[in-house]
Structure formats: C-alpha cells, structure tokens
Design a protein that fits this description.
The protein has two helices and two strands; from the N terminus they run ααββ. By secondary structure, the protein is of the alpha+beta class. The chain has a two-stranded antiparallel sheet. It starts with 6 loop residues before the first helix and ends in an 11-residue tail after the last strand.
Length: 48
C-alpha cells in the first residue's frame, strides 16, 4: 500500500473510494462511517 504497487494503489485511497471504483455493489461491504474506516481493535480497554 505504501508504494502503491498492484492492488495497493487502489487500497491506498481507503475502502470507500476503492469500493466506488470496483463497483458491483461493493459499497455494501465497505465498512466505514462518513468515509472513515473503523479500527480493527480498541486500545482503550488495555491496561498501560
């Protein structure tokens, strides 16, 4: 993704834009809120 090679070029713009470019109802599967991706974990529950 950092070097934008292959599929990294598409994914570097985020899931919302990637799903818009892919089409075929892929926007139904892109997980985002107001264009921002959701994190895979929440560090708030960890002790420090």
């Amino acid at each position: 993704i950092a070097y934008k090679n292959g599929i990294g070029d598409l994914l570097s713009e985020g899931t919302k834009r990637a799903s818009e470019k892919l089409g075929q109802n892929s926007t139904d599967f892109a997980i985002n809120v107001k264009g921002l991706e959701l994190p895979g974990y929440s560090p708030r529950s960890s002790w420090g």
